[in-house]
Amino acid sequence: MKTPHLIHISLGSNVGNRLSFLQNSINEIYKTIGDIVSLSRVYQTPAWGFTSNDFYNACIEVSTFLSTTQVLHILMDIENSLGRNRTGGKGYEARTIDLDIIFSSEGCIVTKELIVPHPAMQHRKFVLEPLAEITPDIIHPELKQTVQQLVENTSDDSIVSLVTDTLKNPKEVYTLARFQYLTIEGNIGAGKTSLSEIIAKEFNAKLILERFADNPFLPKFYEDMERYAFPLEMSFLADRYQRLQDDIAQFDLFKDFVISDYDVFKSMIFAKVTLQSEELILYKKVFDLMYKNLTKPGLYVYLYQNTERLLENIKKRGRDYEQKISAEYLDKINKEYMQFIKTQSQVKTLVLDVSERDFIADRSDYIWILEQINTCSL
User: Fold this and answer.
1) Topology adopted by domain 5-168
2) Where are the chain's structural domains?
3) What CATH number belongs to 174-374?
4) Can 239 be counted among the known catalytic residues?
5) Model confidence pLDDT, tens digit, residues 143-191
6) Which of 41, 274, 287, 324 would suit a FRET pair with 281, their CA atoms being 20 to 30 Å apart?
7) CB atoms within 10 A of CB 28
């Protein structure tokens, strides 16, 4: 999975319902660009460089998989959708919303359409004050000063005052923590680990990931399934059980809930496909003893992808030992998962078809998943 990077954005409005324009722009940024990591309070500032109504200003820190240039284009679309009218004349003018990129963790950028860091930020209190509230220690890569130092040294003597009205982080509408323990499951290559990682980071969850890479039997299994199926499934079962038993029992005061990219029952699902009948009988006895003692998830989400898409994903991520996985094997695994879900009475389940979605490349697909999860009752 790609690593997200951080972008700091300044927001301003001095036309109409200024607070509403700021909030609506933040909502759209969350839906189309990425997670709102930090959100400043609202500051009232005089119009800078021209005579007009006072501005409401704020700054946000956004985590995104998009490039800074891609973010710029989306911000311009958001401005247009919220009634920003660029007359093309020289000088500054009143506006419903103004969205400027101030910093990017991609570094310094100089193109015809974009300069980062913003070339005039050090001269503008309406940018520096809210930015210093959320990231006072970030260092300007060219001026070699922190944002807090830039505030103290700026030549701008404008009077900046705090507004009592506040902005809301859009992700607050998603109440995933009520499930306490959320499981994201799926076939090989379905994207369960990537989705779990994103949700854990965005919603402050304790993340439990399967340690498939540490299993010495896995590469051997894909070379000779019949010979190595039993030791593989037994080793996976033992590790999955131990990890979930330890991590779920150990409450983390600094996390809001637990999310895992697997459920121990997947051991039974894979065992039914890979083991001989005699082996399966023995395996099930051991499995039943372990499974009954484990905490069950508050919600079990199954990411369904069709076999063609799974094979594409497996090829794309390039693990050598996975390249010989057959479509027939994936079909069998998927059928066993669906059978488990149909007969499941102990756990609340949700099946999401993501065959035509890419929740990393397209933020709207990720938001769709969140909305589907959020509508589930306990």
Assistant:
1) Alpha-Beta Plaits (3.30.70)
2) 5-168, 174-374
3) 3.40.50.300
4) no
5) 999 999 999 999 999 999 999 999 999 999 999 999 999 999 999 999 9
6) 324
7) 20
